[in-house]
Amino acid sequence: MQAGESVPERAFLAIEGVGKRFGGAGGFQALDGVSLSVPQGELLCLLGPSGCGKTTLLRIIAGLEREDGGRIHAGGRELTGLPPQARDYGILFQSYALFPNLSVAQNVAYGLQGRGMTRAHREARVDEMLALVGLAGSERKFPGQLSGGQQQRVALARALAPAPSLLLLDEPMSALDARVREHLRLELRQLQRRLNVTTVMVTHDQEEAMAMADRIAVMDGGRIAQVGTPGEIYERPASPFVAEFIGQANWLAGRLSGRGTFSVGELELAVSPARAGEVADGAARLCCRPEAVRLHPADGEPNRLLARIVDQTYLGSRYRLMLEADRLPGITLFADVLREERHLLPAQGSHKFWVSLPSQALQVFA
Q1: Over pLDDT 70: what percentage of the chain?
Q2: Angle 178-195/148-160 helices, nearest 10 degrees?
Q3: Residue 266 banded pLDDT, cuts 50, 70, 90
Q4: DSSP code per residue over 97-123
Q5: H or E segment at 183?
Q6: What is the pLDDT of residues 21-68, one digit of tens each?
Q7: Is 132 within 8 Å of 174 (Cβ atoms)?
């Protein structure tokens, strides 16, 4: 079993040591002993770059792909080897996969066929689901008459109509424009919480994962790089890969000595031993988030540097400053400042001012 997360007995969804290779012995290792647990009602995001294995893992959970090894349990049942129709899940794809020749009501009712429900019961369930996703009154429309966001709501209603114990989302909003995507992900998150349905979502969009997930599993090369809440993943990344994949960061190459001092050329920075982890003395990399850089620190504050603004980017609620700092030649530091505080700083290219890199915000990696 892959190190990184044990699978508790009470997890609703438990994935134990799942592996998958495409193309035989010399082929591509898509999953390498992945283990994960998802408690009842949690929304877990599988996040990572293309080719990291996240979609393959989702398809294995759904039974659409066969694992080479490992086991999967959900709701106390072993799913390993079961066909998709025996697994009790709803799935929502990026492409919606609606039937263009069927009405909205018929599309939603499609997943209710063969369940021994009366016609009246099916119609009542369809009405309930369409009201749930905000499409009451659209029963007789066809998919071609709906916007992309509305079509995705119909697909979600169809996935939820059979009341599955597990909901699987395969990049469900990537085909939508940014405004619709932001609105729909908020609706989807609220709906998921209201129904308390255990959900696994695949995405490559870190902002989407941070906004929606209870926990995120960051994947890299068929393995789990880190599992944690959005705050844990962002504030305490387990590896340089996670730190670089999630958000912007300043990186400094240097040497760690005594777990309390990080040297970059002639500059010495104090670091918190707790943020150095198990890194041994020697060559290392230091990571600092832009919002952690302090502007106008107090006299005597550690890790102070003189810097000037060489460029800036307007990001709505804040500015991202590009700084050129004394004693860090050839290195650009990024610092975030709130929009209403920008006027307190000198103009771009103007005189220098003090900044600091707080020791508790610096994380050291081997």
Answers
A1: 96
A2: 20
A3: confident
A4: ---TTS-HHHHHHGGGTTS---HHHHH
A5: helix 178-195
A6: 998 777 899 999 999 999 999 999 999 999 999 999 999 999 999 999
A7: no
Domain coordinates of the chain in residue numbers?
1-88+165-247, 104-162, 249-365
Residue 8 — pLDDT band, cuts 50, 70, 90? Answer: very low
Task: Count Cβ atoms below 10 Å from residue 95 Cβ, excluding itself.
Answer: 13
Residues 58/168, Cβ–Cβ less than 8 Å: yes
CA distance 13 to 7: 9
The CA-based diameter of the chain, rounded to the nearest angstrom, is 79
3 state DSSP class of 181: helix
pTM of the model: 0.89
Alpha carbon distance, N-terminus to C-terminus of the chain:
25
- What CATH class does 1-88+165-247 carry? alpha beta
Chosen CATH of 249-365 out of 3.60.110.10, 2.40.50.100, 1.10.10.10, 3.40.50.10490: 2.40.50.100
Any bridge partners for residue 142, and if so which? none
User: pLDDT tier at 259 (50, 70, 90 boundaries)?
Assistant: low
User: Residue 4 has what pLDDT?
Assistant: 45
- Strand 250-257 vs strand 282-288: parallel, antiparallel, or unpaired? antiparallel
